[in-house]
Amino acid sequence: MAEPSSPRALRPLSGIELYSSTRHSRGLYRCVVFSARYLHPAPPGAILAALGRLVAAQPMLRVGILGEDTDSAHFSHVPEVDLRRHLETRTLPAGAGYDAGVSGVHAWCHDQLWPDIATRPPWRVIVVRPETNIPGEEPFEDVVFAFHHSLMDGTSAKKFQEQFAAALNDVSSDSDPSPVLQFPDPPVLPEAQEDVIPYTNSTLFMGRLVWNEYAPAFLKAAKPAIWSGEPIDFALPHRARVRAVDISAAVVASMVAQSRSHSASVTSLIQALCLASMARRIPAEDAPAFTASTPFNMRPYMSATANPAVRDSFRVCISETAHEFPAAAVDALRKPDADLDALIWHHAKQVKDELRTRAGTLPADDPINLLRFILDWASHWSKKNDQPRDGSWEISSLGAMRNDSPGQYRISRVLFTNSIMVTGQPFSVSVASAPSGALTAGISWNAGVVSEELMEGLAEDLLAYTTRLHETGSFTA
């Protein structure tokens, strides 16, 4: 029998893709998860057929990664994809604890490392169903999609569920497809982010980077002290925790309307609500100030030179901006007589203004573009161990899913969660809305980096603040 040939190398990973691949190979960041609840469970054949359509249509679902732990990793051609190695079904007890069980599946996914990554595309689908139908509710199932962040981003994950819903509603319910898909020809991959976005770097921007990197410490101003959870610790066990906060469509409609009237957005409002919660729950001596971040989609900045055949394919195309909440702003939120409504809306508008300003300057001076100049990722990551974290939290918002796939398979709830960021922020809040308008915020963190009590308190605050806003027009009434 002939020896199997080595996987064929495709294009090299870009800077932002290496950022994720080198983290995964060290166990520092493992996956992103986006699940959707489908009303009217689909038979196994329809699920297999719909999934097969997506794999055939999306190049990033049929590649591996060669040399993942190196500075020169490449995507690899996977000529055969056996869907049975990517798809499984689980059942959970029905009733009040079912949603927490779905969060637990997310957490399980976040703790896993991807095996055989050069020859098996690093993604999985877990179909989760209640053991019995819940009385009074339409039958449903949750389709959990987990993936390596080098393959794609959160926007791609939302597209996956939109396209999966469309495929389910198009395939025959009595489909009996082969689970083994053949792709003898290598796929045409979406280009690297830095190859399709016309980045520019100003002299001032580059000068600041060089100064911050190489200037002697005694010449640089000390960074303001912020709360950032426990220091980075590579020895801390990777134990993902996920807490979902479900916000009804009616409450979300109030959030949208009130945000518009205050020159804010739902994303910036959630940033401000997290700030209010953290400021009032963490003592001043432990948290004098905070720094948060907001990732955003860079697809609008892609140039006309991008290959139209794969322009809309799943890919990584992201950036982010930071928000500083200095001591004076945090102290104001802690005062017993603080006008919480005014302060929350002030910060929501401020964050919205910062996002608008940053969007207006891109693609100039984007640090994401400079990741390609990191030549020794092993050293880059090892230097971070035992160091304080650079930020306090991240809010990642994907907005609402499209509702353009009429049929019996309808999405009623979504849950988006970020990986545990061993070298990043101590927790993240990932937000997405179902086509119905209901929104779920997925809070994720690593046990031991922040307390379970603090994260449970944040979840309670997000629900309480938004519910009161809907019912009374105030966060505190």
From TrEMBL:
Supply the name of the protein.
Alcohol acetyltransferase
Q: Which Gene3D superfamilies match?
A: Chloramphenicol acetyltransferase-like domain (3.30.559.10)
Please report a single Pfam family linked to this protein. Answer: AATase
What is the source species? Neonectria punicea
- Which InterPro entries would you find in this protein's record? Alcohol_O-acetyltransferase, Atf2/Sli1-like, CAT-like_dom_sf
